[in-house]
Specification:
The chain is mostly beta strands and about 180 residues long. The chain has a single domain, classed as Beta Barrel (Lipocalin). It has two helices and ten strands, in the order αββαββββββββ. Strands 1-2-3-4-5-6-7-8-9-10 form a ten-stranded antiparallel beta barrel. The longest helix has 9 residues. The chain is globular, with a radius of gyration of 16 Å.
Length: about 180
């Protein structure tokens, strides 16, 4: 599987159930979310703007997309967790199934971020991102075309300790 196939398989509306262990707080959290993943074109103003912010030629962008989510956590039942993010894969021309992923908002910290991705032989998408105060590692794989799983680790910035570990099951909602 290459990045274009991975993104194409991800397009759609997903219902997510995430279980997270916040080791620093000794707390377990359950989050239910609705996730919308929509393809963007290379000439979309958000794609061009994000590429310019990273000094990347928009022509290098492959399968850009927007992810929007809204969810509820059992940690704070009154808070709605929601957001949107533009993501742009930039494949490495010298290494098969590897590249950079540009984001206007990160996962571990809500700042613009760039991560390194690769896709394993079994089709697992692996993303590592270094932030100012943390590092994140995410793995996403498809069980079948309408079910995917995601594991995430948030580590200390040095990468020596795990702060949060989570597992998500995501089911595509067909209309």
């Amino acid at each position: 599987m290459d990045i274009q196939e991975f993104v194409a398989k991800s397009i759609g509306h997903w219902r997510s159930q995430r279980s997270a262990h916040h080791l620093a707080f000794g707390h377990f959290e359950a989050v239910q979310s609705e996730i919308e993943i929509a393809a963007l074109t290379g000439d979309d103003p958000a794609v061009i703007e994000l590429c310019k912010a990273y000094d990347v030629d928009p022509q290098a962008a492959v399968s850009p997309f927007r992810m929007t989510w809204e969810g509820q956590s059992d940690w704070d039942e009154n808070e709605v967790i929601k957001g949107t993010c533009v993501l742009i894969p930039i494949p490495d021309p010298n290494q098969l199934n590897r590249g950079k992923l540009l984001r206007d908002q990160g996962y571990a910290e809500t700042i613009a971020a760039t991560g390194d991705y690769y896709i394993t032989e079994d089709g697992t998408f692996v993303l590592t991102t270094a932030y100012d105060r943390a590092a994140a590692e995410e793995k996403i794989w498809f069980v079948n075309p309408n079910v995917r799983c995601r594991v995430s680790l948030i580590k200390t910035s040095a990468g020596s300790g795990v702060v949060t570990a989570s597992f998500s099951s995501e089911i595509r909602q067909n209309s």
